[in-house]
Amino acid sequence: MQLKHFIVALIGVLLFKTSIAQNDSVLYKIDQDTSSTWTLLKYDVNTTWHGVKNSFTKPLSWKEKDFLKFGGLVAGTAALSFADRSVETFMGHQREGYPELLRDIGWYFGSPQNYFMANAGLYGFGLFTKNAKVRRTSVLIITSSVTTGLIQTIAKNGFGRARPGTGLGPYFFKPFSKEAGHHSFPSGHTVLSITMAHAIAKQFKSPWTKAGIYSVGAIAPVSRLIDGAHWLTDIAFGAAISIIVVDGVDKFLFKNEAHNITKSLKPKTVSWNLSFGANKIGLVGVF
């Protein structure tokens, strides 16, 4: 999705929010079971707006440990870039035998139009059945997606990193280029698929269910590597940003008891940490 298209869509959402929201505070309460569909819709749009706003203003209140974590992410990504060429070569050798079905799933699931249609269906189900948990999950997904979508769109254009197929290498950058071949970092398909997978996985307690959801979410990133559309660091950074944003939005929703769901009902989450060691760098999730 091009930057101008994304900004136009975002402005449209914000204008829609402004036109229908009666209360500008995410803290206000409504009866989630008896309120009208229109009231529930206004509540969810208002909650989404505040969630997005919180995501972009949160760094203003970061403490030293938060800056250290972000610095670790940047340093880890830079260190991981030394593996970009070797991983590209390895994935290229797997291309011929990679199932076409998985390639199609990865492409369509990570495409913005299909992604938002799927979430619209999920939200519509929650809205018309007045299922607060489903609506909250959908709000978590869309709020995180708007945030990560804007971040990755700005980053793609700002860095202008060359894709593997251009033959220019992983360290060639052409900032603010309009060429698709220079929109490699980070991976948009990864951002969307991991955002949805992580948001949905957080709703379940079973580690096996979580593992299954993350496995489906990993199809798009792996497919993009197999197809030579992205470097390993494009995938890793996109996944890390998605996880960080989803966790932040989820914490914001619990803090404000959005949809009248309190933290005591929150299932066990996955703790994600960057792992460094001899000849290895990775993102480790602990259930």
Automatic annotation (TrEMBL):
CDD domains: PAP2_like. The keyword Signal applies. It comes from the Bacteria. Keywords: Signal. Residues 1-21 form the signal peptide. Pfam families: PAP2. Residues 139-250 form the Phosphatidic acid phosphatase type 2/haloperoxidase domain. This is Phosphatase PAP2 family protein. It comes from Seonamhaeicola algicola.
